[in-house]
Design brief:
The protein contains no helices and 18 strands. It has 132 residues and is mainly beta. The strands form 4 sheets. Strands 1-4-7-12-15-17-18 form a 7-stranded mixed beta sheet, with no helix packed on it. A 5-stranded parallel beta sheet has the order 2-5-8-13-16, with no helix packed on it. A 4-stranded parallel beta sheet has the order 3-6-11-14, with no helix packed on it.
């Protein structure tokens, strides 16, 4: 696993990373709760993984934390934001600048604000990368 030296990580003891997973430059990993990043997953530059929010209806503005789970072979493109409690299933792609407000399915290309599944991800059998 690799973490860029300019990534910002709060509460690093709450992060688990699989083999060959990476966190890019200027990524913000706000891990007030557990964050699991599966093997071969790429958290690109300027991505935010946010596990904490506040209850805006509570007069004390209570802190709410929920874990984030990123499956195997997931790619979060430049500037994506993942909110608390989200699961990104194996081999999904999250498009640049997307705001992920709900779980995303495996093997799908997903994008937008809010993020939604757009099309099936097809991985070619040639070119050097494989799911195995």
């Amino acid at each position: 696993a690799s973490i860029h030296s300019r990534a910002r990580i709060d509460c690093p003891w709450n992060i688990e990373m699989g083999d060959f997973a990476s966190i890019g430059e200027r990524a913000w990993i706000y891990s007030l709760e557990k964050i699991r990043i599966g093997r071969w997953s790429c958290v690109s530059q300027d991505v935010s993984l946010i596990t904490g929010t506040h209850d805006c209806c509570d007069p004390s503005f209570a802190l709410i934390t929920k874990p984030i789970t990123i499956g195997e072979g997931v790619w979060l493109a430049f500037g994506a934001t993942v909110l608390p409690g989200i699961t990104l299933h194996d081999y999904c792609v999250i498009g640049a600048g997307s705001i992920v407000t709900k779980d995303m399915p495996e093997m799908m290309v997903c994008a937008g604000n809010p993020c939604k599944a757009i099309k099936k991800r097809t991985i070619r059998s040639t070119g050097g990368w494989s799911q195995s």
